[in-house]
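ingest -> validate -> predict -> emit
validate: passed (alphabet ok, no gaps, 544 aa)
predict: started
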Amino acid sequence: MKEVEFNLLDEPWVRVLCIDCTVREVSLTDALLYAHEYKGLAGELPTQDVAVLRLLLAVLHTVFSRVDVQGENAPISAGAEPDLALDRWESLWRLKHFPVQPITTYLEKWHERFWLFHPERPFWQVPQAKIGTAYSAAKLNGEISESSNKLRMFTAYSGTGKSELSYAQAARWLLYVNGFDDTSAKPKGKGLPSTGAGWLGKLGLILAQGNTLFETLMLNLVMLKDGEQPWQPPLPCWELPEARSAERTEIPQPDDLAALLTLQSRRLLLHREGEKVTGYTLLGGDFFERENAFCEQMTVWRAVPAPKNGPVTYLPKRHDPAKQFWREFPSVFLQESGGRRPGVVRWVEELTRSNDAILDRKTLIRFQITGVGYGDKDFFVTDTFSDSLTFHTALLDELGRRWRQKITDEIDRCGKLAQAVGSLARNLDIAASDPDRASKKNSANAAREQFYFRLDQPFRRWLCDIDPAWDGETAEEYVRQWRADAKRIAQTLGRQLVDQSGNAAFIGRMIQSSGSKASDKGTYYSASKVYNWFLADVNRVYQK
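emit:
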């Protein structure tokens, strides 16, 4: 077995979706040089695609922060004029593909640092991790994420498919585990701090998507931090003179994008037998304070109330996998509500600013969220999820301000309709059975979820079709049409809940409130009566 083997710049391992909708594996070099010929990444999981995407972005940011499209030395560093970064980005966008010479020149220079197996500098790994917690290939594979004491009853793999991985598979999952690893590994040193889950697992990940891999990479190539100022000079992990190997190391928040994108949340070392990877060992790696970590451009934020009159603190906000992405619209896209928009959203907005905008305001932009669900104290992974939202790019700029508020108002009204549906479901339970028994049933939550499920596709279509240039009566009529649709969906579901409530609910029962006097006759609950209450609640949602 060779000590030096499988160079990621030459060997196929990045899974891409071709224009004809077939999936193939290509080298890292080909993924960049032919990105315009691929529709996107097509890894085993959306979260794996994010990890691979960040590696590709780190290469691009490093290269084009130092040289221009022709490969001439023209560094963009902190303190430079923002227009310089915007011009560099625009020249790449207009080219519609990544130039060969700057990328190949850079990758040839660092070719030795991209060996998956190497005695001193294996890619994304450190030899010192051999003393870490040992895991099998089944734990490395994020589709299984199976440890020795937690076996999956139903998995997508069996036999040798669970016990070993190809080099190409292992390379992809290596990036994934570094970003999304759980907290099950035990420290080897004494008194070391907890690092928590991998950095990507702590985030509410969001990225912009284009029609090709080239466009997706470009839209997420944030040349200005938060759309404002250039970054510090790039220093990706493979350019470090020595790889960091100390266990559970707290570092300052990265101030250059390449360092952030190649953050080593874990110290890893792959183990192989024959031509297969059979397992790995792992230690905690680099971590930094999450509070106000605005260097991260691909996360949703949540505000933490300030003590007394202190400044507001922001933390990454994980997504709720049970909540459709459009229901998060206000916290993600509405700066006016006192929130903080993700850096990639602010970047896309910057590209549409001014009369000579780089991006056409009339084009559709798609944002994707993705993440993993963790069990107790992030000790194990329970689920992986992804969702996306498409709308006109102009919704992000000043022209779309009034529409952003209208959309937020309608989402708030949808929430009130969901509450009305949930109340109807609970009241029908009360009409059919004892109130204490009814309160223990989960019918209200199930009814709300059903309402949002029925509302989901109509709302997405409504949002996608909004033209921010609409004004006056055209805009009001479009909003009225949506309200009529939402009201109809709620009422239809309400009638179905009544129809399914049974004879006992139609007969009804008298319920006396707790603490009431004996002379108090109480409230009569029946299917017809609570349905009338529901209709009144729905009508109040849209009263002026």
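The first helix runs from residue 28 to 33.
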